[in-house]
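Entry 14. Structure prediction run on the chain below.
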Amino acid sequence: MKKRNNHGILVKKTACIALASSMLLLTCGCGGTPSVTTGPVTDVPVTLDPNAPDPAYPTSDYNVISKEDYLSRTTAGFIAQLVGMVSGYEFATLSNGRCRVAMPDSWFDFCNGPYAGNTTFMKHVDKLRKNSETGITEVWMDDDFSVDVFNQYSLEQSYKTYGTVSAKVVSDGWIDYDIWDMGGGQKKVGAYGLINRKGYLPQFAGNTEYGNWYSYNTEAYLATDTMGMAAAGMPEVAASLAKTFGQVTGDRDNLGFAQMFAAMVAMAYFESDIDTLIKESSKVFPEGSWQLDLIDELYALHEKYPDDWRKAFKEHENKYYVEGDTRSSNTTINCGFMILDLLYGEGDYMKTCQIASLAGYDCESTCGIALTILSVMKGMDILPEVANERIWQNGEGVLVNRPLAEMDEGVYMHAGKLEERMKIVDIVDKYVRNFESVLTERGGHIDDKYYYIPVEKLGTPEGITIKNAGFESGTLDGFTVKGTAEISPLATMGLKAAKLTGDTELYTTVSGLKVGSTYKLTLYVNSTETASTYIFARKAGGEGTCVSVHKTAGTSVYEAQKSVRRELVFEATAETMEIGVIFKQLARTDYAIVDQFLLNRIEETPVGTVTVKNKSEDNTYKDVISFAIESEVAGEVFVKLKFANTTSNIVNADLTLNRKAYRTTAFYKTGAAPEGLTGSDFLLIPVVLKKGSNSLSVQFSGNKLDIYEATVITVDERW
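Output returned:
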């Protein structure tokens, strides 16, 4: 049985019931009437149910799940990833090359779609093949779950190495395990290429600005949704894991949906209501986020067409399709489809699979995500027998970690240095062990039969809503323009953005700030290479602070996705302030396209002190800067550097932590701040510190950097 605790989360009843029953027997006669004892009181031995959870961990503080139940749900969740791949019609196209949406019911064949040898309506590489020697049908690797699998190896290695999650180990794993992936993880101009050539930490490897051509792609969310299975019942942890692992391949709305989907999976262990899951997991997005507006649109479509999913899907796709620019990996369309899959599937496994498989675009990926959520809700009992026969095979199912001969090398999707054949039960065991590591680190408990998971709700970012933040109204309403600005279709998210030319200032006024609190302003900027754009926050008409954007050429295949994400962190000096951009042109053809103003409160907490060993009087350093760090904590934290890079290039810097090589960070190009503004460009370097004394060397041989301030902090963006 299940009941709701006072946190609104479904939990299993525990030994409290058995204990209450025993107490009742002690105070009642056989007929249930309280008895009165007149003689001496003697102790009556009480035997609790030996299979009941430990009452020392009350359900007001812990969600309790049996190991057997967790294993059932997690196994079903992983199998669902494979079911989606072999059932869905990925990238079906019309004669004009546009993706086909909402295919006929007659096309659906459970576990026998285009990737399972079904060529009646569409042909893909067959990835469900019978091994002639063993007689076992084997699933061959696909990017829908190959990086999910590899991530569990990296997560396990992270705990073995540091006892916690480490961004460094995430990057290490791509090379150590020789990951072949497409899109954001691509071998040459994706995550692998950047880590291999430049040694980058994840936030640079998945970033357009530093050379990832496909940072807008699907990998960020389709490779991290199952992180929720390594953080069962802990949505905040799941979202954090998804960000750490997802940012190696993406740096925009795909990363936000990665966090949402991972949180949904984590919640699904104790929540069976689809509507609640969607709405609660959407709290990963700060108030004012464009994604929240999108989710509202999806609910409105479901309400508009309650009995016709095809009309809803087609209307959603038609709105966000852009001629000549929309990719089959479009985040808005694909993630919108996934949410609609759940709404129209109504919790039914086969109905959800059919809708998701026929939806269109990257639907075999989104089908797997939707089915994973349902499977985690209900466990192996939900698994159709066909899935057992073709994939699970009563625990004998195998994944083949090799490329197929008929595949082009560019779309290989496997880990070259992992075993060639992996039993599904062994992969699930990785999730189990990693979940236990995550649970223990987060204050949970484990006994012979049960997991005791601290009750955790997803924190809600404290945001300030900005009117017309993404210019989706098709106007500049809400903004003041001094110079020249117009609406552009080259949007990073949604359909509209603002284009600035000449020397132009565009800003809006925000109120409700807490004086003395810290805020983060996020904006996407796509500009010509010779131009300078400054994102600022200031008192109305007064002084303020800014960060700069200078175009890095050749970082995306598609023009609308060449935008750079930049963040300004500032202290509110007034309840009402102006935030915006200042654009400075150098050539007559210069422009900047800006999109998605987002403002939310954060907390940066110092967790130690940083001293510069080779202190420079003018804050300029050549080749190297060395720090002595006294840390109050052990674990991964950020070293925050306020800097200026006035060279003409991005400066890559090799890190040495406690006399050991620790990957590479990067400093983007900066410019002199406009009059009345102070430059506040900063870099966050994730490092695992030991408690006490640490040393960090940042080496940028042949270059100069200005470093004005160094701190060691943790960052909290949700409460």
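Residues 1-42 have pLDDT under 50 and may be disordered.
Filed with the rest of this week's runs.
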